């Protein structure tokens, strides 16, 4: 196992919220959101702040650089999930995305983009956020799971993933789009692709049973496996425990898979062994953040850019 892969970035952007709470604007289609009636709003916000702080420390200890930004605002409850509004790409490219919910559009931050320009080689920034005026959404690497090695963008259809916007992104960034229908046990569309799948360098986690069409399910499986990746098939229960919401990163001692403690607990021993053949598991405790319907992968925007000397 080599320590670096184009699939596994060495650095991430994270946002530490000061007034976190599950977003009421998104609970209609984000079926992973839950409510906690046992804690006050202040307690939830304080614990979310602490969870992000500890997660950033654990990543840094593993050798992953974390660019940690503060969000002291009260109008951006989902700001802890920055991977939805921007992504970075080899060659110095940055994309900014159109968001579905109005209050999520306020999460876009010029200081994050300026930091990237100052510390990394950025050639261009392509801003798709104007598509919001046409009612089109494409929520970044939540809507799309990107295979940077094979140049494939996987996406489950939803109101967060407009196919016209995705085709435009894939043309600009040289990805092949693979779009499919994915639903939970009740037949409801899964809102973001990155809760049901994670593409690593030598493995892929995916809830294949969420793809109802057997022909399409086999096509997705075969494309993921065509370069030798081991496929770790996740059950619907494991998807509900955020086992698919993970991100492979390059640490000081090799590749690591960052995921939540809840997700790790949901994995079976043979699945853990499959992952550990090429990456070290790095569980992070984020139960309060998971109330918002996202987990560890959503909390990190990977930096696929070259650092300036």
Automatic annotation (TrEMBL):
Highest taxon in the source lineage: Bacteria
Stored Pfam families: DDAH_eukar (PF19420)
PANTHER family: AMIDINOTRANSFERASE (PTHR43224:SF1)
Protein name in UniProt: Amidinotransferase
């Amino acid at each position: 196992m080599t320590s670096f892969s184009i699939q596994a970035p060495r650095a991430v952007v994270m946002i530490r919220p000061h007034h976190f709470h599950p977003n009421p604007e998104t609970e209609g289609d984000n079926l992973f959101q839950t409510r906690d009636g046992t804690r006050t709003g202040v307690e939830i916000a304080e614990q979310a702040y602490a969870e992000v702080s500890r997660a950033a420390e654990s990543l840094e200890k593993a050798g992953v650089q974390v660019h940690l930004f503060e969000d002291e605002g009260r109008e951006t409850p989902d700001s802890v999930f920055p991977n939805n509004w921007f992504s970075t790409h080899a060659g110095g490219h940055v994309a900014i995305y159109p968001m579905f919910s109005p209050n999520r559009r306020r999460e876009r931050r010029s200081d994050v983009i300026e930091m990237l320009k100052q510390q990394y080689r950025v050639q261009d920034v392509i801003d798709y956020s104007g598509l919001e005026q046409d009612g089109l959404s494409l929520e970044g690497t939540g809507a799309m799971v990107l295979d940077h090695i094979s140049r494939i963008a996987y996406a489950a259809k939803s109101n967060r993933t407009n196919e016209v916007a995705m085709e435009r992104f894939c043309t600009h960034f040289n990805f092949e789009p693979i779009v499919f229908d994915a639903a939970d046990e009740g037949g409801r569309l899964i809102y973001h692709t990155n809760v049901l799948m994670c593409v690593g360098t030598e493995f892929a986690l995916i809830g294949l049973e969420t793809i109802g069409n057997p022909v399409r399910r086999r096509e997705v499986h075969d494309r993921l496996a065509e370069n030798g990746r081991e496929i770790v098939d996740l059950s619907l229960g494991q998807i509900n425990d955020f086992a698919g919401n993970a991100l492979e990163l390059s640490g000081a001692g090799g590749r690591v898979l960052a995921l939540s403690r809840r997700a790790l607990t949901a994995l079976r021993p043979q699945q853990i062994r499959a992952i550990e053949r090429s990456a070290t598991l790095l569980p992070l405790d984020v139960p309060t953040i998971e109330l918002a319907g996202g987990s560890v992968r959503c909390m990190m925007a990977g930096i696929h850019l070259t650092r300036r000397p």
